Amino acid sequence: MMTLGRCSRPRRCNLDRRARAKARHKWTALTAAWLVFASLFVGAPHTRAESARKAQDALLGEWWTENREGRVKFVRASDGTYRGITTCCSHSPPDNEDPEFDIHNPNPALRRRSTVGIVIIWKLNFEDGKYLGGYVYNPRDGHTYRMKIEVVDRETIEVRGYVAMPLFGQTQTWKRARPAPVRTAPSIAARKPKTASR
Question: What is the DSSP annotation of 15-42?
Fold first, then answer.
């Protein structure tokens, strides 16, 4: 008579248990390997996209023009291209070489605007690690040129303005502008009270 819950052939039952345990172990290992493999494919595009975005945005921020004659801040426009806005500086006293106002602008209506705070670079597209196809307006002569920019390192870019072809142009080296540290006076609470001498 067979007892419920017990195996009538212990040796065979032991073999079955070991086989089931081995199968479960193999299945667990295969599942873990699949999860690791899947995570590589899921995470890789995200990581690549982040790296591409960082490389693409390397131009953002403020840069000193060559010889620190002015400062330009690059931002990303709503259409995904990059533009540069002058943030500094008006020479004192101003002259025709470095005018305070946009006196050389071909549009007479704009000749009374300041040369600080205006867009002088626009339509730069990021392609193959470079910023190409842009335009640069020169307030010194009122002319607009084609331009391209290449990032040399985190602190340096090479800006080339040209007419028609990059071969016929001029290259400048710009350096990243760092904001001056702001020094704040210590708060009253931070000051240690003076001990009165007796």
Answer: HHHHHHHHHHHHHHHHHHHHHHHHHHHH
**What local confidence, expressed as pLDDT, does residue 106 receive?**
97
Please give the Cα distance from 64 to 72 (Å, whole number).
7
Q: Give the C-alpha distances (Å, rounded to integers) separating 94 from 6, 16, 114, 115.
A: 103, 95, 12, 11
Domain boundary assignment for the chain: 57-176
**Residue 15, burial from CB neighbour count under 10 angstroms (0-12, 13-18, 19+):** exposed
What beta strand segments (E) does the chain contain?
A: 61-64, 71-76, 82-88, 119-127, 130-138, 143-153, 156-162, 169-176
Angstrom distance (rounded) from CA 22 to CA 20:
5
For residue 141, what is the DSSP state? T
Give per-residue pLDDT as tens, 139-191. Answer: 999 999 999 999 999 999 999 999 988 888 999 999 999 876 555 555 544 55
Domain 57-176 has CATH 2.40.128.520: yes
pLDDT in tens, 52-99: 677 889 999 999 999 998 999 999 999 999 999 999 876 666 666 668
